[in-house]
Design goal:
The complex is a heterodimer of chains A (224) and B (252). With 224 residues, chain A is mainly alpha-helical. Chain A has helices spanning 3-47, 53-66, 69-79, 89-115, 118-126, 131-161, 173-184, 187-216. Helix content of chain A is 80%, strand content 0%. Chain A is flat. In chain B, the strands form two sheets. Chain B has a six-stranded mixed beta sheet with strand order 6-7-8-3-9-10, sandwiched between helices. The chains are: A mainly alpha (224), B alpha/beta (252). Bound molecules: adenosine-5'-triphosphate and magnesium ion.
Chain lengths: 224, 252
């Protein structure tokens, strides 16, 4: 490796990692947290079969799973200003990523809720818990345990998808890399470098997932 | 103490309960017998509001309710006076044996934790499950799970416990284990309404028997009357089939 390339890579490493820590990770963390709230709410209204809200949840999932993430970003960031709605790049990205992710995760949570044997909900109601108490204390915790691996998957996918936010001028890792490439004309090395940093983030999350699964596994059933 | 009249329930077009009357007095062990599909489970579930009955009335401790139109608040209140033991135990899988029992006490009845734990431990002791208090359901055998479920039912000191075939998922040894717990409860005067196919248990423990078929009560009466002197031919046939009646009852 030439000395120049080596210098570019070490120099750029921090310049790429920094927006990773200050933009990519916060964007992922905030959007995913909101997505979880949306997902649980959308799953619960379907599970409880709340008239009206159930249909609304189905419609929302249909739209956000059925259209490209990039298109959603463009509609919100470049399209909405036409209607006088101007949103800064970062909040726009948070909005789109949480709505998009929420739609996918809602399905994960819903199927996890349905996988908890219905008898436990009935038993909880029989011992005097109200429906929300029974859901919140007995059914939902078990469902989230079941949903944890697929949700972790979604989270890892999302970290990588945040690179799309570069398209709406969010100064995250990928955009930082593009800028350095434009200056140095070393696309191969630099794009591999940013890829490796994404890999680093994903690996850390995989570890986190394994640790979380172990923590949650206390009452894990092997076979009844 | 608990009486239902003219309970009706249909699933879609299919009428499953066609006007059932049933009465349980304090201290009774009432057993519901009947062939599969006769509506026994559905009746119990309607009485505990797990299903919404299509019609009928319920009188509980002198309070009268129109089944199918009982407000949520009353349902919640009534459930605190009753308990339900399921065929499939339905223990909370994310709770230990002890927590399965305390859950309803703490959250449902708002009893302080330490007091709830003491009560729960007593209940577990009664069913012989105290040593397993910190086990999760998946670490327990079916019979042990059902005994925890019974502890969960008795801990709240209900006025009546509904049992829906509590032993039919268990092998004979575990069945005996659970039945002996239920027998002890009966001796202590617990009011119980039991759907079971255990004819021996029904015969020796019950004070009242209700025989159901096709969504109706065919015959009901004291345990002795039904087992020794059934009036309806259908009841006789059922008892004979299950080996609980000599082939020729008139010759005894
Ligand atoms: N949720 C349901 N939806 C539709 N039909 C049902 C439902 N639950 C029960 N049934 C029907 O109602 C009838 C009575 O069922 P139920 O479970 O009350 O019978 P059972 O007397 O408890 O039978 P078993 O002894 O086999 O437990 C059956 O024909 C059953 O198919
Ligand atoms: Mg049944």
């Amino acid at each position: 490796m030439s000395e120049r390339l080596f210098a570019i890579l070490t120099d750029s490493f921090w310049k790429i990692l920094l927006p990773g820590l200050t933009v990519t990770i916060p964007l992922t963390a905030i959007a995913f947290s909101l997505a979880m709230v949306i997902a649980v709410a959308a799953a619960l209204v379907q599970f409880a079969n709340v008239r009206g809200l159930r249909q609304l949840a189905r419609f929302y999932i249909w739209v956000f799973r059925g259209t490209p993430l990039l298109v959603q970003l463009f509609v919100v960031f470049y399209g909405l200003p036409n209607m006088g709605v101007l949103i800064d790049p970062f909040p726009a990205a948070v909005l789109v990523f949480s709505l998009n992710e929420g739609a996918y995760c809602a399905e994960t949570v819903r199927s996890a809720l349905e996988s908890v044997p219905a008898g436990q909900l009935e038993a909880a109601c029989c011992v005097g818990l109200s429906w929300p108490q029974a859901m919140g204390r007995i059914v939902l915790p078990q469902a989230m345990r079941t949903a944890f691996p697929p949700l972790s998957n979604s989270l890892i996918a999302m970290v990588k998808d945040t690179s799309l936010a570069a398209n709406i001028t969010v100064a995250e890792m990928f955009m930082a890399t593009q800028r350095i490439v434009a200056r140095t004309y070393e696309p191969l090395a630099l794009y591999i470098e940013v890829g490796l940093i994404y890999l680093l983030f994903s690996t850390a999350l995989t570890w986190l997932q394994r640790w979380g699964e172990k923590k949650l596994g206390a009452y894990e059933r092997q076979e009844a | 103490m608990l009486e239902v009249r003219d309970v009706r329930k249909a699933f879609g077009q299919r009428e499953v309960l066609k006007g059932v009357d049933l009465q349980v007095e304090r201290g009774d062990v009432a057993v519901i017998l009947g062939p599969s599909g006769s509506g026994k489970t559905t009746l119990l579930r309607c009485m505990n509001f797990l299903e919404t009955a299509g019609g009928g009335t319920m009188t509980f401790d002198g309070e009268r309710f129109q089944l199918g139109r009982v407000p949520k608040r009353d349902i919640l209140r009534l459930r605190k006076k009753t308990a339900f033991v399921f065929q499939s135990y339905n223990l909370f899988r994310n709770r230990t044996a002890l927590q399965n029992v305390t859950e309803g006490l703490i959250v449902g009845l708002k009893i302080p934790r330490d007091q709830a734990e003491r009560t729960a431990l007593q209940a577990l002791e009664k069913v012989g499950m105290a040593p397993w208090r910190s086990y999760y359901p998946h670490q327990l055998s079916g019979g042990q799970q059902q005994r925890v479920a019974i502890a969960r039912a008795i801990a709240a000191d209900p006025e009546i416990i509904f049992f829906d075939e509590p032993t039919s998922a268990l092998d004979p040894e575990l069945t005996a284990e659970v039945l002996s717990v239920m027998r002890r409860l009966a001796e202590e005067g617990m009011t119980m309404l039991v759907v079971t196919h255990e004819m021996g248990f029904a015969r020796s423990v019950s004070s009242r028997v209700v025989f159901m078929e096709d969504g109706r009560v065919v015959e009901s009466g004291s345990s002795r009357d039904i087992f020794e002197n059934p009036r309806q031919e259908r009841t006789r046939a059922f008892l004979r089939l299950t080996g609980s009646l000599p082939d020729n009852p008139s010759s005894k």
